[in-house]
Design brief:
Length: 75
Amino acid sequence: MTKSKTSKRRKTRPSTDVAAMYVCDSCGEEIVVPVDISAGTHQDYVEDCPVCCHPMTLHVDIDADGEAHVEGAHE
Ligand SMILES: [Zn+2]
């Protein structure tokens, strides 16, 4: 007899984390950042570059397809 297990790991909502990429102004590296698209279609925040630790202001835009676009601005 086989018992079917009900998975409780099912997500209650679709994934709200997408990956977006920007190019660091200081070192020129391509940085991939996770973006929480549930936080709004326009987000601005400062994040230190993981490569060179230079603080960058990130302007995040979420388009209608739920895709995130990040633009890094030098502070
Ligand atoms: Zn950098």
